[in-house]
Design brief:
The protein is α/β, with parallel strands linked by helices. It has a single domain (about 1-215), classed as Nucleotidyltransferase, domain 5 (2-Layer Sandwich). About 35% of the residues lie in helices and about 25% in strands. The protein has helices at about 35-45, 50, 100-105, 120-125, 140-145, 155-165, 175, 185-205, 210-215; strands at about 1-10, 15-20, 25-30, 55-65, 75-80, 85-90, 110-115, 135-140. An 8-stranded mixed β-sheet has the order 1-2-3-6-5-4-7-8, sandwiched between helices. Helix 4 (about 120-125) links the parallel strand 7 and strand 8 (about 135-140). Helix 1 (about 35-45) crosses helix 3 (about 100-105).
Length: about 220
């Protein structure tokens, strides 16, 4: 079960330490492009070897307001690598750092997530017009193929995580359908967003990179 261990408030971002199955994840929540820029630069620095080998895997997820008009532009973009996660609050963003555009268009990075077929379209139709070079890999489809498990394809994130990571998470529907447009995300929303991106990352790193590329 995921819980908030610590919470620090700074002038232009918040930091949460999320405990998931006795693993501590450092989560940065911000709407400031300068913080996003620094987080992404640090991510590339600490994962430079994998990046140069074209083996860098990044968990990606988005959340949106269910009451918004079609095509449901995302309110948040979350990225996860190793024990670090970024939640970029797109709705209140003061801009987009150029490095984010670069990373989303970099074919050396493999983005992964759950049931993410429409994520690129939603990002493109957001006010920030974020474009991805290719569709992110759906780890659920990878698991279906790898384990010959057709029943998993339409399973919830909670079920997939429990079966393949042996981790119990909630991912309650009322949190998924809550107001992600609000100025300050709730702790439940932070946990939901972290689980979405981080668990996709955990599953993906257990799958050979060639199989990820085939989905």
């Amino acid at each position: 079960m995921a819980t908030i261990h610590r919470h620090y408030t700074h002038p232009n971002h918040e930091v949460y330490i999320v405990d998931l199955n006795r693993t501590r994840i450092t989560v940065t929540v911000t709407s400031f492009s300068s913080i996003v820029k620094n987080w992404l630069k640090a991510m590339l620095h600490f994962n430079g070897h994998r990046y140069r080998q074209r083996r860098l895997i990044v968990g990606l997820g988005i959340q949106w307001n269910p009451n918004a008009l079609h095509p449901f532009p995302p309110d948040t973009l979350q990225l996860a690598v190793n024990h670090r996660c970024l939640i970029f609050h797109l709705t209140h963003a003061d801009g987009v750092p150029y490095i984010l555009h670069q990373i989303l268009l970099d074919d050396a990075i493999r983005f992964v997530g759950f049931h993410n077929r429409y994520d690129p379209d939603k990002l493109l139709h957001s006010p920030l017009q974020l474009r991805m070079i290719r569709y992110p890999t759906d780890v659920v489809k990878c698991l279906r193929i790898r384990h010959n498990d057709p029943r998993i394809e339409n399973a919830s994130v909670r079920r997939v995580v429990k079966k393949y990571l042996r981790i119990k998470v909630e991912q309650r529907g009322e949190v998924k359908d809550s107001d992600w447009n609000r100025l300050n995300l709730t702790e439940e929303q932070v946990i939901f967003a972290v689980v979405d991106a981080y668990c996709a990352f955990l599953i993906a790193i257990k799958i050979p990179i060639r199989q990820l590329a085939q989905v």
